[in-house]
Write a structure and sequence with these properties.
The chain has 159 residues and is α+β, with helices and mostly antiparallel strands. It contains five helices and nine strands, in the order αβαβαβββββαββα. 35% of the residues lie in helices and 33% in strands.
């Protein structure tokens, strides 16, 4: 990711993050994928009505799918509203999907969505990460570092 792409993500009106993922996994590599949505799903995402809690990605038949992503039904959607927890196809290049498929064959590696945002053209995009699961002591170390950072920030505010 270059500096320009990071700025666009920060300016995005919608940023739905998977905060638990950074606690559970070490991120090895990042990809940005498009997501195939229906009309009412994109309207719900633009309204910030989506969640990445307990989501993961899987590769089937050379395609990558996100499972467990919850997009609330659109309030004004009538009989043609979408199913909140359906599997959604992600759009990546074949060589990127192949690279991810090879990497996930190794023990302990998985693919997790980390961020859903709206790009400058109004399309929903998903940042996914190739991730390796943390052990229990790694999680304790993360908590300790976070607590130390808070104490340092608190001490700096008093000066």
């Amino acid at each position: 990711m270059n500096k320009e792409e990071l700025e666009l993500r920060k300016k995005s009106p919608v940023q739905i993050k998977n905060k638990k993922a950074s606690f559970e996994y070490f991120f090895v590599d990042f990809y940005t994928a498009g997501i195939v949505l229906t009309g009412t799903e994109i309207k719900s995402i633009r309204g910030g009505k989506a969640s990445l809690v307990d989501t993961y990605c899987t590769i089937m038949n050379g395609e990558i799918w996100v499972k467990g992503m919850s997009i609330s039904p659109y309030f004004y959607g009538s009989y043609n509203n979408h199913d909140a927890k359906r599997d959604r196809k992600l759009l990546l290049k074949k060589r990127e999907i192949h690279k991810l498929a090879e990497a996930t064959k190794a023990v302990g590696f998985t693919i997790v969505p980390t961020l859903v945002f709206i790009d400058k053209h109004g399309r929903a995009k998903v940042d996914i990460a190739l991730a390796k699961g943390k052990k229990e002591f790694d999680k304790r170390q993360t908590l300790k570092e976070r607590e130390d950072r808070r104490e340092i920030d608190k001490a700096m505010k008093h000066y």
